[in-house]
Amino acid sequence: MALIELHSDTLESIIAPDRIVIVDFWAPWCGPCRHFARVFETAAAAYPDIDFVKVNTEERWDLAAEAGIRSVPTLMILRERVLVYRQTGAHSESQLTSVISTTRSLNMSEVRAHVAHSFSQDE
Fold first, then answer.
1. For this structure, is 13 an active site residue?
2. Which terminal residue of the chain has fewer beta carbons within 10 Å of its beta carbon, N or C?
3. Is residue 43 annotated as a catalytic residue, yes or no?
């Protein structure tokens, strides 16, 4: 899958259990968002095995609120339905490539164990 502009779907409906999903929360009035759009589109073309999703926070304020977005652009990366990365601010092409590489190299069994341990600590 390539670039997805999320309109009527919910984000949950496109997060596949066996895929990496990169979500760009953006707004039309945001200069850094427009600059990052080129980087995001280039990466989407370069990594066809990853789902790249754009969420216009002006149109989908409900999703932005649900995700706790307070500033744009905000990039979120999910792997196997687990949030593994969240960062506000535009990324350069090399930064995005590095984050994708790191995401691919994650041992998801260890990540899930860490998440489970973190939740048990909170109780």
1. no
2. C
3. no
